[in-house]
């Protein structure tokens, strides 16, 4: 497996409860290195653009409102097979279905307020990283 990058968001339900460090610790313990990180308050335009793939889903409005409700921490993570490694430590979208020890099992409040985002493919990781970071902000 090659060393690759993925994109992560620590979502408003987690930043609000002061869980930025706790979530990052889980990521690091899973073998992922934080090579870029910034705390931002997403604009509506950013949230709608980032989640455009979900624009026809019934939860889209709720998702956008949630993502702009409080600051988030956007991160680039690097490691062996980073996309899968991150998805594994995140756990299932619905915390009720997430495995023991995963971030969502431990911290998520609901299927909507589920503490973290993670890219689902190498291709999407590249697009999502470029959506929030300039290349010179990433220090591997
Ligand atoms: P994931 O974040 O695990 O990749 P996804 O891409 O299917 O999940 O959905 C993106 C986000 O949208 C998800 O993290 C939370 C929200 N969401 C998904 N399904 C939902 C639902 N049935 N009700 C409310 N929010 C939902
Ligand atoms: Mg997704």
Task: Explain the overall architecture.
- There is one protein chain.
- The chain is α+β, with helices and mostly antiparallel strands and 140 residues long.
- The chain has one domain: Alpha-Beta Plaits (2-Layer Sandwich), CATH 3.30.70.
- Helix content is 39%, strand content 20%.
- It has seven helices and four strands; from the N terminus they run E-H-H-E-H-H-E-H-H-E-H.
- It has a four-stranded antiparallel sheet, sandwiched between helices.
- The chain binds 2'-deoxyadenosine-5'-diphosphate and magnesium ion.
- The site of 2'-deoxyadenosine-5'-diphosphate has 9 residues, from loops.
- This is Nucleoside diphosphate kinase.
- Belongs to the NDK family.
- Its cofactor is Mg(2+).
Nutshell version of this structure?
Residues 3-140 form the Nucleoside diphosphate kinase-like domain. The protein has 140 residues and is α+β, with helices and mostly antiparallel strands.
User: Helical percent range?
Assistant: 25-40%
**Overall pLDDT metric:** 98
CATH level-four homologous superfamily name? Nucleoside diphosphate kinase-like domain
What's the CATH architecture name? Answer: 2-Layer Sandwich
Shape: globular
CATH fold title? Alpha-Beta Plaits
Number of domains: 1
Q: Which CATH class?
A: Alpha Beta
The strand line-up of the biggest sheet is: 2-3-1-4
Q: Which band does the percent of strand residues land in?
A: 15-25%
Largest sheet, in brief, is: 4 strands, antiparallel
Structural class: alpha+beta
Q: Number of DSSP strands?
A: 4
Radius of gyration: 14 Å
- Terminal residue distance: 18 Å
Question: What is the chain-wise order of helices and strands?
Answer: EHHEHHEHHEH
Number of H/I helices: 7
């Amino acid at each position: 497996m090659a060393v690759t990058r993925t994109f992560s968001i620590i979502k408003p339900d987690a930043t609000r409860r002061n869980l930025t460090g706790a979530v990052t610790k889980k990521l690091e313990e899973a073998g992922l290195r934080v090579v870029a990180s910034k705390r931002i308050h997403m604009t509506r335009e950013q949230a709608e653009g980032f989640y455009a793939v979900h624009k026809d889903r019934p939860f889209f409005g709720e998702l956008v409102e949630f993502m702009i409700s409080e600051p988030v921490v956007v991160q680039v993570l690097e490691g062996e097979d980073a996309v899968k490694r991150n998805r594994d430590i995140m756990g299932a979208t619905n915390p009720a279905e997430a495995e023991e020890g995963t971030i969502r099992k431990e911290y998520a409040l609901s299927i909507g307020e589920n503490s973290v985002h993670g890219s689902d493919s190498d291709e999407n990781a590249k697009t999502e990283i470029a959506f929030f970071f300039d290349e010179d902000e990433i220090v591997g």
